[in-house]
User: Fold these one by one.
Assistant:
Number 1:
Amino acid sequence: MKTLYIDVNTVDNVIAAWRSGQCVAFPTETVYGLGADATNDYAVAQIFAVKGRPQFNPLIVHVSEIAIAKPHVVWSAQAEALAHAFWPGPLTLVLPRSLSCGISPLVSAGGETVAVRVPAHPVAQKLLAAFGGLIAAPSANRSGRISPTTAAHVQEELGGLIPFIVEGGACAVGLESTVVDLTGDAPRLLRPGSITADQLEAVLGQNITPHTQSQSGGLHAPGQLESHYAPQLPVRLNAGQVAADEALLAFGSVELTGAACMRNLSASGDLVEAAAHLFGHLRTLDQPHYRAIAVMPIPETGIGVAINDRLRRAAAGRWGN
Ligand code: TXA
Ligand code: MG
């Protein structure tokens, strides 16, 4: 199969591919997704095959509007409040599957819950609205690798494995969506993202339980495994100096000197800009002729929490494939 770049005007090709059970990579405001019909077991199995993803890791279902997802989940006042505040946008809600849920059990990794999101990217909106259904989509990278934030990254990851990559420019957010679990007694943050815990708490009017490894037991949200976002090179965090054979991921106006190669996440110290550049810069620096990627400290505030979360995972090593 050859990977083609298509333009949004060729929406019909994407819809036809989705209807016939194929996978198509498409842009969202967070990262590029690898989408297929969430109600088609074969199509969902293709996603796992293309990514080389462990079957126990559940997928996020994408819809153009809430009404399309509602029959498949148990909707709640909390879901309504968060959806009203943040959709379309970079927030994923984990909800109980409804009795009439038509979503493939593979999407839920055999469990009783399903993750749903309404993306804001105009190309995603256009494709999902034209499809009119539910699209399961993980990030469009091979399992265990950095999420793609441009169509060129998707080409690097999955070129030749899927029929289409829809070009949609660089992703504005650049980090995967915030994931909130609404299936328990209290809302739980499963993955930090650009929508922060403070913002969620302000809308819910209650505290949100921060995620920890022990809570999940490694199964509830496998995306939380430490090594999920891994470049090939070792990653050294909070670098106060840099060696001549290291690549430097800098932040702020005062850059360390002496690195073999350098990229700055944001010279002005803007965390939103830093998030948008994170995965692209990690990819650029991840070259075998350097010994390691040294990362300057990033403030643990706002979206900096999510940036540091991804960096800690990157530093924890490889997933294995
Ligand atoms: O921004 C995003 O969320 C991107 C774009 C493409 O939408 N998607 C994405 O998908 O990051 P993925 O598969 O790479 O990460 C989904 C995360 C994983 O950590 C997974 O374990 C968790 O969401 N997840 C999915 N369904 C879940 C469920 N039913 N219960 C708990 N966690 C779930
Ligand atoms: Mg992913």
Number 2:
Amino acid sequence: MKERKKIVVGAWKAYLNKAEAEKTATALTEWRNNNDKKFDYDIVLSPSFPYLVSIQNIISKSDIALSAQDVDTVEMGAYTGHIPPEMLLDVGCKYVILGHSELRHRKEGLKMGLGIIHSKVKAALGFRLKVILCVGETIEHRNSKQTFTILTNQIKSALEGINENIVRDNLNIAYEPVWAISSQKPVSPPTSKEINETSQKIRSMIEKYLSKEVADTVRILYGGSVNTENVCSYLNEDNIDGVLVGGASKESSSFINLLTAVEKKVSLPLIQ
Ligand code: PGA
């Protein structure tokens, strides 16, 4: 079986203004170009739409890749307010995050959204954008033991029927329990063992709806309050191929600290 390269995604949500985003991207690019290239992970940054071009200008001097936070399913034409996949490719995006819970819950609608997300996955992969598809249960689902029903629903509806040839090597799934995102104590993220088991089940679902051969190429990430202290406990697990980092990626000091923890395979104290 082909080894899956690990991946660390910095998801900047709507946190940073232009100057802040450029400052973080510049510091990361300098760090990446000076650091040990044995650190063979994919690093991806996902700024807000208005800053994609300026961030790409900065990170294109390194091997850090650009991701958008969403895409529309239309082609270029008379679609005011829409962003077709071609435009993301045109400004240098290699990845697109789809189905993030903050979009599923606020914009796409939980039920209707399943069909929309399927169309977006298909459109993005069709243009050879790499997809980071987010899935995850709410605290209510978890408390009523519906986690796997929800995950199965999200994965089946997003992937069933999509041509395997466009999925192969281009799909990443981020398992993000909604209740663990941006969590403040006392809500603490799930244990790495628990996430490892869930990731294994997610891979079996992909196998069921696509094929084993394709499922083996899919990277499964964990997202939800990942930080410098806990990141390695996740990445040490066999079935976790990467992490999607929100809050801890928006400032260069904390993201570089997190990447250093990954590189050295240690836990580092949080920067206050
Ligand atoms: P967080 O965000 O790291 O701030 O919890 C993760 C996410 O929303 O994917």
